[in-house]
């Protein structure tokens, strides 16, 4: 039948066919503050607040104009690989896999390891996609609570590793949403104890004082995950995994043939042909972060946690009140209250431009005095 007439009662079939754990989910809600057309201060998603420098923008635009959009992209994205290797210090001997954001790489890793009975393990609270991708792949997820100061509970992690023998352990380094870098010795102990893959997710590497990237050749079970998203290029969706070639060869089989589209490939080559701007923007963000941290710490009833990322985690007396009050002033941050018991009354604030940070600070002071 075409058009009109009978409607399709899909709900009954959907409920019978789709897996119960998927039916129970709600789709990932991305906050969209711009629907009414008025400007918002959007400091909720760890984006770099700065636009591309003019010269870089011109380079990208010329490169995009040349892309043969009628053709499939280069499936191996060889030009992007070359650009990443020369711009971002990837060890020569290590293998490299590109993804449509590091989100896709997490999904590829979990699905490649999803044997019956496989376990994925991560400390919690951490990046929620480790748990979600395990669920999508029907892999059991084991979360090990962090300590109240958000450090790794080394004993609990090692006990869980011995008990569960996880196929993969995910460590966000620095961690989202707690903003801290785990102790290097704890991570090394996990690398030594793990019989499966240890994924060190360095999404925030540009704002941190430590990295495991250079140590990939040292550990046969280490995969370092990175992304261009936090360093000014979230819109193009490019993540990369660095590990022993034997790991990369298998993960590459799970990848969709054209997962990095032609526009992204052309853009990355143009964006990285001079990468000084990335370091300069990251340095500005780190400087603003320091200013924001100390200004936040001056506010009464705000506890600021140490950060090695482009966001600041704070604990307040009433996170819902502050979140709603900022929203009423057109400032969007992330309310973590209710996510995990360790995050009670916590808020996550992305470092914005100096002007954005100023409006956040003055709104917070206003909310404080309106109490
Ligand atoms: N890992 C961590 C720890 C993150 O916080 C994020 C983004 N929030 C990602 C990975 C995914 O980043 P993307 O898909 O943009 O590369």
Structure description:
By secondary structure, the protein is an alpha/beta fold. Helices cover 39% and strands 15% of the residues. The protein has helices at residues 10-17, 20-23, 54-65, 78-88, 101-112, 129-136, 154-164, 184-193, 245-254, 262-272, 276-298, 319-328, 354-369; strands at residues 41-42, 95-99, 119-124, 140-145, 168-172, 197-201, 222-227, 239-243, 303-304, 311-315, 331-332, 334-335, 346-350. Helix 6 (129-136) links the parallel strand 3 and strand 4 (140-145). Helix 4 packs parallel to helix 10 and helix 5 packs across helix 9. The longest helix has 23 residues, at 276-298. The mean pLDDT is 95. Bound molecules: 4'-deoxy-4'-aminopyridoxal-5'-phosphate (PMP).
Q: What is this entry, summarized?
A:
About 40% of the residues lie in helices and about 15% in strands. With about 375 residues, it is of the alpha/beta class. The structure holds 4'-deoxy-4'-aminopyridoxal-5'-phosphate (PMP).
């Amino acid at each position: 039948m075409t058009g009109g007439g009978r409607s399709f009662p899909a709900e009954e079939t959907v409920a019978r066919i789709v897996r119960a754990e998927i039916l129970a989910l709600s789709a990932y809600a991305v906050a969209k503050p711009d629907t009414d057309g008025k400007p918002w201060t959007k400091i909720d998603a760890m984006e770099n607040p700065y636009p591309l420098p003019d010269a870089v923008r011109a380079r990208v635009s010329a490169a995009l104009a040349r892309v043969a959009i009628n053709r499939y992209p280069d499936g191996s994205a060889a030009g992007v690989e070359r650009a990443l290797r020369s711009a971002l210090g990837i060890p020569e001997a290590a293998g490299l896999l590109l993804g449509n954001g590091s989100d896709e790489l997490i999904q590829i890793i979990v699905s490649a390891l999803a044997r019956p009975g496989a376990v994925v393990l991560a400390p919690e609270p951490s990046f929620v996609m480790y748990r979600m991708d395990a669920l999508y792949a029907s892999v059991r997820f084991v979360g090990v609570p962090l300590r109240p100061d958000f450090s790794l509970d080394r004993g609990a992690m090692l006990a869980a590793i011995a008990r569960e023998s996880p196929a993969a352990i995910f460590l966000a380094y620095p961690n989202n949403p707690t903003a801290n870098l785990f102790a290097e010795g704890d991570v090394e102990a996990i690398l030594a104890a793990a019989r499966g893959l240890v994924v060190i997710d360095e999404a925030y590497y540009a704002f941190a004082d430590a990295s495991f990237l250079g140590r990939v050749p040292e550990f046969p079970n280490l995969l370092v995950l990175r992304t261009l998203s936090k360093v000014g290029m979230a819109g193009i969706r490019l993540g990369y995994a660095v590990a022993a070639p034997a790991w990369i060869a298998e993960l590459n089989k799970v990848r969709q043939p054209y997962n990095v589209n032609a526009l992204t490939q052309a853009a990355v080559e143009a964006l990285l042909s001079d990468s000084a701007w990335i370091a300069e923007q990251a340095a500005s963000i780190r400087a603003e972060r320091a200013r924001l941290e100390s200004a936040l710490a001056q506010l009464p009833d705000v506890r600021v946690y140490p950060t090695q990322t482009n966001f600041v985690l704070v604990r307040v007396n009433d996170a819902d009140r502050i979140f709603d009050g900022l929203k009423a002033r057109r400032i969007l941050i992330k309310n973590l209250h209710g996510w995990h018991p360790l995050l009670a009354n916590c808020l996550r604030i992305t470092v914005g431009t100096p002007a954005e940070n100023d409006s956040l600070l003055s709104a917070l002071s206003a909310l404080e005095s309106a109490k």
